[in-house]
# Entry
Amino acid sequence: MRVAIAVLAGLLCAGQAGAAQNPALLPRPQQVQYRTGSLAIEGLAICFAAPPAAEDRFAAAELARGLAEKTGVQVPVRGGGGCAAGIVIERTGAADPLPIPGEQPGPGSREAYQLSVGPRSVHITGRSSAGVFYGIETLLQLAQGRGKHAQFPQVSIRDWPALAYRGTLVDVGSEGPMCTVAQVERQLDLLARFKANQYFFYSEANIALDGYPLLNLQARFTKQQVREIIAYGRQRHIEIIPALELFGHLHDLFRVEEYSALADFPHGGEFDPANPQVDKQLRDWVAQLADLFPSPFVDIGFDETFSIQRAAEQKGAGATPVKLFLAQLREVTNLFQARGKQVMAYADIMVKFPGIIAQLPPGLIALPWYYDAHPDPEYRKWLNPLVTHHVPHMVLTGVSSWDEIAPDFDTTFENVDTFLAAGRKSRTLGLVNTVWTDDGQMLMQMSWPGMAYGAAAAWQTHPLQQDSFFAAYSRILYAGGTAPAVAPAYAELNAAEQSLQAAVGQETQHAVWEDPFLPRVLARVRQHRNDLRACRLHAEQAEEALDRALASEAVPSPELRSALVGARLLDYAGMKFLYALEMQDAWATLPPRPARRQLVDVLSQGISSQVHSRTEDLMVAVSELQGAYRSAWLAQYTSHRLREALGRWDAEYQFWQRLQARLQDLGADFQQGDAVPSLASLSEGQINGP
# Structure
């Protein structure tokens, strides 16, 4: 809730400052100097200082499209080269659209740019096409007003990245729902706005490879789809990097009987490095994946090898976790390095078994990850061993949304800020912000602000301002009539999630399906009535703001629809646990063997009636919300695992329907002197639990 309170205060101040204020830029440029005056956008044209390459033409077209969308002004792009007025694009070096190994940040970097808005013209200069593109993204943020009132403030900007590599890793379909190609492309559009240059395409075994027809039949990207995503990212100066799993996290492979023997344990999750057939398969996979992804980088995984200790014990004398891990790591690293790839691997197991770090293959980049606000702000556990052994590394943060109903932006922002600060001290090469789908039900589009936060933070030298982030983010992505409602909506959504976590724990997406009458659940939520009520009030404020935002859009944004579903589900969760407490409190007024009239009185107090009762309210809410959830799912994912996710909603409805029926039967059949059963026994105890 820290972010929500700060954001609401920031919005109030922003509103008082007035519309004439220069726009907050995100990420904030390294050097900005505003001057008095402005330049009207109407009447300008986009031209090139020299004959343009394809990358320059694409950037100019994106600028024209963005200005038309934001201001309503059509700004033409003139072909050829040579011009002195209008919006002049000048690239001084080779196109160099993508990051390469050994990339350097700073004012002389490939991605640096200069932007000048004068009284008659705009000039954008970059050494590469990436620098030009980032200058154009900043210019779009400077545009204000619509039609004949559209203008740029006069300003001089010199800007460059603080970190060479600014990545986002997305689980596109391995541990949860599978993103559509269109959704991945929308994510790339988003990340390009905030100057990201790497997208880690996370795949455990969901890319269709030749010779593996049984592998993930319903959840795999074709090679052609991957190529389309790579091309789409390249246009936006984002390198698509394969983020693979070539040791653990491969249950989807080993659950197929044909490949089960390749695992250390039958139908397990990790390769058996001692099996000679593993080497044969690795060579085939590496060859196909290296050919498919032109990126010079590859992330080979190697995280969370949970059974490595047990596997070493099974191998007998001489086998240790360190030896097993290094054998597999060297094999995979050598295969990719032979194909000219810069290899990366996660560092959690390296740190767990310290003997690994001193024996890492030369040239490997370690990826230490931690997804919470760490109690040690220096992250010594994860960084010190790498620094001591001079291992190059990139820090990995997380958007906390994989087990939550709505993203926990408090934790997300704090994690990015603190781990990034520690990484700067350890001389990190870059930052990779991760988005996971562990609970199988999260609507990823709600995570967009967290994705943008990580991208922008990695560009800036100084930390982002959490209190103004939602306002700046919303103004960049949404039209003037929509943005004012979006920022408070995200602040309220975050506050609702924080309040629910206080009541039921961090994993709110799992908690919402629990039987609320279980003694342990009742005991916890009973101490948090005020938090549950606050959850509902914040969620309802978010709903109202999102309704306003969606109503103002000609084409409602899918990500705002996802956020609306999140707000409504948070409201439902608060209602569910509050109602359970109220029902239990009413039940507790009954003596062990009540008179029939006493029982009927309690049942009639809004508990089990088919009209205006708590059970009826909950059935109506969850059944109506299920349809909205399904629509939001299909707006970003394929149908893979949708039936599984909807099964939770079906079970939730059936839980309340059965309880209502049992209560009604109890009232009808109850005889004087009968013992009254507990609500927990009537609910049958976690019949729809996770």
Summary: The chain has a mean pLDDT of 93.
